[in-house]
Write a structure and sequence with these properties.
The chain has eleven helices and no strands. It is mainly α. The protein has one domain. Helix 2 runs antiparallel to helix 11, helix 3 packs antiparallel against helix 9 and helix 5 packs antiparallel against helix 11.
């Protein structure tokens, strides 16, 4: 692949990533609710899900998803249902007070945050369709196997996405301690986080 192609791809990718989307909303909500370390685990989960989408695009599985309305709807509504479950979990905790120490130790594990991140990204069929539409624009048949080019470009996309999401995670996590010191703020943030998840569910199901 030519250097000019890679640089053009990176510039186009950054243009896409600099516009906050569902992934950013999820990372920020997680950072404010659970702290900086948990937010970084959520980023790791999201990028793992993105890598799986890249693999699917390289292997042609995304094409199958795009061509089958039934498969698309199944994945779409499964993702929406999972986000609704996350929202319900947040709303159910609004009546409880959690100290900072207990909040960081026991309310959620890093593995759970990572799993949620993977599923939030993986169960979004629009991500698969985005990779299917975006990556091939930079693939040149005469410059090596298309599968390898898609894999390389997808890997670059995930690395850039991880850098952007990490910046949001660090910023949001920095607010966590201050917010968690106030029970009123805790309840407000849980309601807001639940509302964010419901909003993401609506986007996943109807947009």
């Amino acid at each position: 692949m030519q250097t000019s192609t890679v640089l053009t791809f990176c510039a186009a990718t950054l243009a896409v990533l600099l516009v906050p989307g569902p992934s950013v909303a999820y990372v920020v909500a997680c950072g404010i609710e659970h702290g900086r370390v948990a937010a970084l685990y959520s980023v790791l989960g999201l990028e793992t899900g993105a890598l799986l989408h890249v693999v699917a695009a390289a292997l042609g599985l995304a094409t199958l998803l795009a061509s089958s309305e039934t498969a698309f709807l199944i994945v779409r509504y499964a993702g929406a249902a999972y986000l609704i479950w996350l929202a319900t979990r947040q709303f159910s905790r609004c009546g409880t007070r959690t100290t900072i120490a207990r909040h960081r130790r026991g309310s959620v594990t890093h593995l759970q945050v990572y799993r949620d991140g993977v599923l939030v990204d993986l169960l979004n069929p629009k991500t698969a369709l985005f990779f299917l539409a975006f990556l091939p624009q930079f693939v040149h048949p005469g410059r090596g196997p298309a599968v390898l080019q898609v894999a390389v470009l997808g890997g670059l996309f995930v690395l850039l996405a991880a850098a952007c999401d990490t910046a949001y995670a660090v910023a949001a996590g920095g607010l966590a301690t201050r917010i968690q010191a106030s029970p009123t703020w805790q309840r407000g943030i849980r309601k807001t986080t639940g509302g964010v998840y419901l909003g993401l569910a609506g986007l996943a199901a109807f947009s």
